[in-house]
Amino acid sequence: MTAPDELAAVRYVVDDVAAAVHFYTTHLGFGVRNDFAPAFADVVRGPLRLLLSGPASSGARATPEDSAAPGRNRIHLIVDDLDTEIARLRTAGLSFRGDVIAGPGGRQILLTDPAGNLVELFESAPR
Predict the structure, then answer these.
(1) Which of 41, 59, 65, 103 is deepest in the core (most CB within 10 A)?
(2) What residues does each domain of the chain span?
């Protein structure tokens, strides 16, 4: 087990590591920790370490064949102003899945990375 003060890590299987690194660093404020493209890279934002595993990486090869489609899980990034983020990312030509959804805790929208993995952008409801 990792120590409580270590980074939490999530693995996304991607078809193009360089495109994924560009997406997360350019548009979502991640920094590169390691870059072994085309096989693997990991990027960091706060306490989140995002492992980007290309087809040649051991992490991707360990994924069962019938799991080729992106999963329903997603990373969750909190933003201060959802509408501003959506406008900025649409201007950059990025794709969203669906519209903004509002609930008692706040508002959210799903963004897709170049491989189709989901990223939830979330703005908390006013307190």
Answers:
(1) 41
(2) 8-124
Estimate to the nearest angstrom the gap between the alpha carbon of 65 and the chain centroid. Answer: 22
> Angle at CA 92, nearest 5°, toward 91 and 97?
85
pLDDT digits (tens, 9 = 90+) for 47-65: 999 999 898 887 776 666 6
* Residues 83-116 pLDDT 10s: 999 999 999 999 899 999 998 899 999 999 999 8
101-115: b (≥16 Cβ within 10 Å) or e = eeeeeebbbbbbbbb
What is 8-124's CATH superfamily? Answer: 2,3-Dihydroxybiphenyl 1,2-Dioxygenase, domain 1 (3.10.180.10)
By the 8 A CB rule, do 76 and 120 touch?
yes
Q: How confident is the model at residue 67 (pLDDT cuts 50, 70, 90)?
A: low
